[in-house]
Structures are given as structure tokens and as C-alpha cells.
Amino acid sequence: MSELSRRKFIAGTAVSAGSLALSGGLMAFKEPQHLHPTSDTDTPRAKYDIMQDVAKYRKLDSHVHVNLASTDAEVQKKYAESLIDYSRRLQVQKLVLSNPVTRLINGVPDGSPEAFIRNNNIVLAVMKLYPEVLTGSFTFNPVHAKESMDEIKRCVDQGMTNAKVYYQTKINDPSYYPIVEKMIDLKMIIHCHAEVQIGVGGYRMKYNGFKPKNVSIPEDFVDIAKRYPEAMFQYAHIGGGGDWEYMCKALKNSPNVYVDTSGSNNEEHLVDFAVAHLGEDRVLFGSDNCYYQSVGKILASNLTETQKRKIFFENFNNILRKGGRNVD
Ligand SMILES: [Zn+2]
Description:
This protein is an alpha/beta fold. It folds into 2 domains: about 10-45, no CATH class; about 55-320, TIM Barrel. The protein has 11 helices and 10 strands. The strands form 2 sheets. An 8-stranded parallel β-sheet has the order 1-2-5-6-7-8-9-10, sandwiched between helices. It has a two-stranded antiparallel ribbon with strand order 3-4. Strand 3 and strand 4 (about 110) form a beta hairpin. Helix 3 (about 75-90) crosses helix 4 (about 115-130), helix 4 (about 115-130) packs parallel to helix 5 (about 145-155) and helix 8 runs parallel beside helix 9 (about 270-280). The longest helix has 20 residues, at about 5-20. The chain starts with a helix and ends in a 6-residue tail after the last helix. Residues about 1-40 have low confidence and may be disordered. The structure holds zinc ion. Zinc ion binds near residues 63 and 65.
């Protein structure tokens, strides 16, 4: 503002304040009519139809689970009905289901082949209930090299689209190298659970909170992504409760690492911040079974229509396309 316009502005303000005083101050203000609509359709706000906004975007859920707490087929069947209900209500064309082994035995994640084979069998069974909507990710533990390779083949042959791994082994552990090479051949993304906590008093507590020591943190992704620039990695749930600003900043220069927006933590600007730091092509929609909020946080962002379309659908579809597994 120039000095001249500043003076004009101040003068103008003084005039307004003066007229206010003359006319009896704030009490004399008549509230504009539009604040008191005679019907719900009178206001611009009422014209926003959230379900119409939901329907505008095709969606691909890149992070969603079967029931993680049960091995019972009937429980899974009932849960699958709720997944289908979600897909219909919020118009999600495809759900990429996973079932990582989350069970701890004396504080150590169960990393046995029996456990990952059992969990994959659950996903395969659920996928078959609604094959037009449900697809799946296979899990494994790379320290069991042969069993993991056999399992990948078995699951890919039955239509699974990518990998989902948990905190059995760090994503940049050397045992992953042959698996990552296999995933490059298959043109599939590796989705890995990830965390990073907010420090207290300036100290970033990477391993507190009684977390298993092999939980993958952003620096582990940066490391493996640099070693294998042709591979693709999905950093799980930036809305999962960790320090998402730190995650996005740390992954900024790793172009083959994508993040998904899932999780039950929905601070304002999370989605905008991710796009600002990672670009509009590396952010993927996911729910992590937090259905309404996961869609709502993208609708509520300040992104453009094109960016929202990319995040809800196109970015993940393009990843699937590399291996000919795209939705259409
Ligand atoms: Zn999850």
C-alpha cells in the first residue's frame, strides 16, 4: 500500500467510524436480510450439497483393511458387507484391501510365514466375495526370503495388485533388496506402514511409545527409494497420528515415494501441505477404514478440481496402469 492510498484508507475508515457514531453505533446496525432466510434454499451455504460433491469424483481407496481382529470367515463376510456399503455410499470404485500381521508376541511382531499366509488367505477370500469392487495387497516378511517369494507369486496369480508390509522388518533392511527387485519386475507399489512422532522439548523420539524397533520411519523410505529409483513405495497414512509435516518434508526429494492421506487424524491443511511439498502426483487417497472423514478431508482442502481428481483416483490408477492393472 502506497503512502497516499494508506492515508486514503485511514481517512475512509475514520469516515465510516464517524457515521457509525452518528447513527447510534453498533446497536443501530440492521442485520442484513440474508442472514435470516425464510427457507433453507435462500442462502449460498445451503446450496452446497456434500453428496453431490462426493459424487463428482471417482475414487480408488489405496489403504483399507479387512477386519484386522478376526480370522473367522463369517466375521469377515459381515465386515465385507460394510466395506461394500461404504463403496456405494461414497462412490469408491475399487478398494485395495490388506491384512498385515499386527499381532505382537511379547512385544515383537509375529513375523512367521504361517501368520502372513493365513492373513493373505483372508484377503483372497474376501476379494472373491465382491471381485468387481475389492482387490488386495499381499503381506510377507522378507527375512523369510523363499517363503515370501513363493507367497508373492501365489497372491499375484490370484489377482492381488501390490504389497502391504508392517513393522516386522524395516523397509530399507537388506533382506528387502531381492523383494524390491521382484516388485520392480512386477511394476507394483510397496505399501509400508510408517510412523514418525512429534518430539517433546525439541527431541524427536523415534522409538518411544513402546513401538517395535523395526517400525519404518521417513528416513528409511528415503534410503531404499534412493537405492531403487525404479521402485515405487507408498508411505502409509500421513493422517495416522504422527508428525505429518515432518513426513512430507523428509520425503520431498524422493520422487518414487508416494503418501496416502488416510488415518483418523484430520488436522486442517494436512492434504494441502502434502501437495505443496510432494506435488499433486504423489498423494493418494486412502481411508484406513475411516470412511467419511477420509473423503471429507480431501473435499475440504483448498486443492483445485484437477488436483482432487488426481488424489481421489488418477494417481493410484496410474500406478496400477504401469502393470496393466488399472481400473479402466
Ligand atoms: Zn492401515
